Amino acid sequence: MDDTTTTPPTTDAVPDELPVVDDRRDRLLAGLTLIAGVALVVGLPFALKAGAEFFLPVTISLVIAIALIPVLEWFERRRLPSWLAALTCVLGFLIAANVALAAIVVPAIEFFRKLPERIDRIQTNLAPLIDLYATLQKYLNRTITHLANTGPVKTPATTAVAPPSSLLELAATSAPTAIVQVIFGILVVFFFLAGWTRARRKTITSRTSFDGAMATARVIQDVVDDVSAYLGTITLINLVLGGIVAAALWTIGMPYPLMWGGIAALLNYVPYFGPIVAALLLGLGGLMTFSDIWVALIPAAIMIGCHLVEANVVTPLIVGHRLTINPVLILISLSFWSWVWGTPGAVLAVPLLIIIQTVIGAAGKPDIAGFLFERGTLVREQKKPRFGLRRN
Question: Which residue in 106, 190, 238, 254 has its CB near the most CB atoms, within 10 A?
Answer without folding.
Answer: 254
